């Protein structure tokens, strides 16, 4: 075990949110009053470590602390009961962990180079939500149907050529529809394009965005009432089916918008027609269609979180406990992104996660050696499969008189 905890991997991961920074951010007097062992900062550390190790329950968390000397050294105590962990998780205010999350987001945005997807736009914000299902009997506060309960994370991510970064989040019981949170997730900024799905359709909100020159792209429902004002003929061979200027809604029922929008129909990769509506009149229809495809970035983000962090199974039954766990999962994700940027690691984030999982309490030098270790063996499977093609290259070089000896080959399939 590496006794030099100053240079340990876990402390290197947490240096952006050390105890002093944590105390200044939460700014709560007497938060740890009468607490002997499990202070707020040690509790955060324990939860982050549990996320990285994918610990499934508080009982398992308690046992890992009791049996793990390295974890004991890190936290400076050797045991904590499941009931104490449960009380702490249920009593701790989720808004404090939310502050930490936003602090880390600002750190990432300040340090990472962010190139726009298309030169004419500044930032691309993608908005969506994901629901974590629960048992109605165990989570009655989260009931949204007679037989279902759940909590919904409404999230905004920043998408550039380099990254997908969670930017702002709202945690609420699943009974709150997506469009009710739209106003809180959209910045009134003309330099940003907001991208969202059909769950956020609200004609009054669309008029409000148009009035303040806030740009957006979304899908339109098939039963939408559309009044066509004008139409542009797509170029031959273009995937664009229609490009129209329209009014949405109907004057008779008071839903008609006061601002015109642009309706674009485009074929997706499977040949299906997708109806896209936007107030971006300065971009080409093809560019708008390409931008809408970036909506899947937030879906892959949710998938990563659910697969590689403890994001779906919960440690506690109360609303505080569930929200705290989700905020810490987002904090853990941000810490890994910051570490990846610090090291200028170009591989997938999962490599960072797996190496942290294995070497969390070891020296940081051991972590670096493992992360950047060059492979000692190389597969020749693809070369064997392509041998006929490679042989033709050699044969051509001899036939054209380019080489007269194997040592002169510009392409050697055995060693290149």
From TrEMBL:
It comes from the Bacteria. Residues 7-66 form the DUF4372 domain. Pfam families: DDE_Tnp_1 (PF01609), DUF4372 (PF14294). Keywords: DNA recombination, DNA-binding, Transposition. The keyword DNA-binding applies. Residues 126-335 form the Transposase IS4-like domain. Belongs to the transposase 11 family. This is IS4 family transposase.
């Amino acid at each position: 075990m590496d006794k030099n905890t100053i240079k340990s991997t876990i402390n290197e991961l947490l240096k952006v949110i050390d105890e002093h920074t944590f105390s200044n951010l939460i700014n709560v007097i007497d938060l740890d009053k009468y607490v002997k062992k499990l202070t707020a900062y040690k509790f955060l550390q324990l939860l982050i470590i549990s996320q990285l190790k994918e610990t499934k329950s508080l009982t398992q968390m308690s046992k890992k602390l009791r049996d793990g000397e390295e974890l004991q050294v890190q936290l400076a105590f050797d045991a904590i009961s499941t009931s104490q962990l449960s009380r702490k998780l249920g009593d701790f205010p989720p808004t404090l962990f939310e502050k930490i999350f936003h602090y880390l987001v600002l750190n990432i945005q300040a340090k990472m180079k962010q190139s726009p997807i298309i030169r004419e736009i500044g930032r691309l914000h993608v908005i969506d939500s994901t629901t974590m299902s629960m048992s109605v009997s165990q989570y009655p506060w989260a009931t949204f149907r007679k037989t279902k309960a759940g909590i919904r994370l409404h999230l905004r991510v920043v998408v550039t050529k380099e990254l997908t970064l969670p930017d702002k989040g709202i945690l609420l019981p699943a009974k709150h529809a997506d469009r009710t949170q739209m106003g809180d997730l959209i910045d009134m900024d003309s330099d940003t394009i907001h991208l969202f799905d059909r769950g956020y359709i609200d004609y009054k909100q669309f008029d409000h965005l148009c009035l303040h020159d806030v740009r957006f792209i979304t899908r339109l429902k098939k039963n939408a009432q559309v009044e066509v004002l004008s139409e542009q003929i797509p170029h031959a061979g273009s995937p664009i089916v229609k490009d129209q200027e329209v009014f949405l809604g109907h004057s008779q029922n008071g839903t008609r918008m006061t601002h015109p929008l642009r309706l674009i129909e485009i074929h997706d990769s499977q040949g299906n027609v997708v109806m896209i509506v936007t107030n971006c009149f300065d971009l080409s229809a093809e560019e708008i269609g390409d931008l809408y495809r970036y909506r899947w970035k937030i879906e892959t983000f949710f998938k990563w979180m659910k697969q590689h962090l403890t994001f779906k199974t919960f440690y506690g039954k109360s609303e505080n406990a569930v929200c705290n766990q989700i905020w810490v999962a987002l904090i853990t994700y941000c810490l890994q992104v910051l570490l990846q940027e610090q090291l200028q690691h170009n591989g997938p984030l999962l490599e960072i996660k797996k190496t942290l999982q294995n070497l969390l309490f070891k020296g940081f030098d051991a972590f670096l050696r493992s992360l950047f270790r060059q492979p000692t063996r190389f597969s020749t499977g693809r070369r064997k499969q392509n041998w006929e093609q490679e042989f033709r290259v050699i044969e051509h070089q001899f036939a054209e008189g380019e080489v007269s000896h194997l040592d002169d080959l510009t392409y050697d399939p055995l060693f290149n």
